[in-house]
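re the bet — no i am not wrong, look at it urself. input seq straight from the record:
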Amino acid sequence: MYGNAPMKLFACRSSLHLAEKIAGELGIELGKSSVTNFSDGEFQPCFDESVRGDMVFIVQSTNPPADNLFELLLMIDAAKRASAYKVIAVIPYYGFARQDRKDRPRVSIGSKLSADLLSAAGVDRVITMDLHADQIQGFFNVPVDHLFGSAIFAPYIQDLKLENLAVSAPDMGGSKRANAYSRHLQSEIVLCYKLRKKPNVIEEMSVIGEVEGRNIVIIDDLVDTAGTIVLAANMMKERGAKSIRAFATHPILSGNAVERINNSAIEELVVTDSVPLTVHSEKIKVLSIAGIFANTISAVTTNQSISTHFVF
């Protein structure tokens, strides 16, 4: 309950798997909704129960295709037009986040446009996890609850009880995240510097730090083609690393990413279920974030602090 407003949880199609887990953690039934598909590819979401005066949470990651984002926008619009009290978008993976700045002339800033579209649809709040860049929160004019995968990754790493542990970032952009893990785990830190001349193509990479004889843990927000993380792992193995594990919140795994991982020095890739995992590999382990999101949703509905859910 939010004041006198009942809370209801709904899911768009791409994140139905996670929404069902979140509902289970909350001890509630997932709200009833449906989608009408037209022969030309157009679709129309619909709430199959009243949401008048309710606090409506809608779960959907906005990874490509763009239909995932647009379905979320339509659901938000439908909830507002059905007189929902508040509409909160639960976006485990916020897509288009890598387009967070003008890094060359005449390009869009896709993550800002996505934020504007969500605001235009009428969203009142956003709950998300491990944004590609922290400043994306500033693209919104509504509250953003930014959760961190460290809440499940850090305890998992601690349970491994690895000696001579070193935390690594696959690029300089991830140095802040790696440093936070390093301080929490009281370990050394190793950084990688990469030169990229165009998307998904790495021209050059170098490793900064001592890796010989160490158990390396590579931390990143997402793994897409796996080119960066595999190159970093193989380089560190060549330099004498004892073992290499990788942790990435969002398993996009496009193209031949799984094949690259299977043929790499990475012993284990640990990811979350922020997006549906459509591929299989014995090297990939999935940890669920349903509990973290359920706790946050519960805190939001009761006006409680969510900072207690952060490990660091």
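see?? The first helix runs from residue 16 to 26. told u. also The radius of gyration is 20 Å. so pay up
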